[in-house]
Design brief:
8 helices, globular, mainly alpha, 3 strands, three-stranded antiparallel beta sheet, single chain
Length: 204
């Protein structure tokens, strides 16, 4: 179980983590929450039903990582397509942000509930619902870190397929230890391994 998720009875999953891994995962989840931003709480006395239909932003985020988390729905080929994307964003982004916050919060709460054993580690046990929250958060973390590292979808596919010429993800994976990006790359790869084994536990 060390280092990868394994299926548990009832549709859940479990993974053994040491103290350092727990601290890294929690820190990354908190940073993701800060990036996504707080939810808008209804004002005192406001109609809670109205909050369900509150409109969100129509423009894409300027931060590249947020733009990756909240991409345009239909691209930006022409003014008509951009208008359709803006309309879609206006009515969906708030819900999407809330879901991503819930995913990251689940990571923080489940890690905070762990009791560290004498060997300096703990076994994280997740329910089926928590597994799906973790999958969402792991994916968002990889998208965010990948954006900071300038890893594109094409780079990722190339690396997974064993390719990797001179640039993109392939060259990042071969960084020397002295490169300041190396810790971020290692976190990116580790999160990918966790995500992959968690997906496998949920497959029939």
């Amino acid at each position: 179980m060390a280092g990868h998720f394994e299926a548990t009875p009832g549709g859940g999953a479990a993974v053994a983590l040491d103290e350092v891994e727990i601290a890294i995962l929690r820190s990354l989840a908190v940073q993701l929450l800060e990036l996504i931003g707080p939810g808008d709480e209804p004002a005192e006395g406001a109609d809670p039903l109205a909050a369900l239909f509150a409109e969100g932003p129509s423009e894409p985020p300027t931060d590249p990582a947020l733009a990756r988390l909240f991409p345009e729905a239909y691209g930006d080929e022409d003014s008509e397509v951009r208008a359709a994307s803006a309309e879609f964003r206006r009515f969906t982004e708030n819900d999407l942000r809330a879901r991503k916050r819930d995913d990251a919060l689940t990571v923080v709460r489940t890690l905070d509930a762990l009791t560290i054993a004498g060997n300096g580690g703990a076994v994280l046990e997740l329910t089926g619902d928590e597994c799906r929250n973790w999958l969402g958060a792991l994916n968002d973390l990889r998208l965010t870190i990948g954006t900071r590292l300038e890893v594109s979808d094409e780079d990722e596919g190339e690396a997974e397929g064993g390719g990797g010429g001179g640039g993109g993800a392939g060259s990042l994976y071969r960084l020397p230890d002295s490169d300041p990006r190396k810790p971020m790359v290692m976190a990116y790869l580790w999160l990918g391994a966790l995500q992959e084994t968690l997906v496998e536990t949920l497959m029939p």
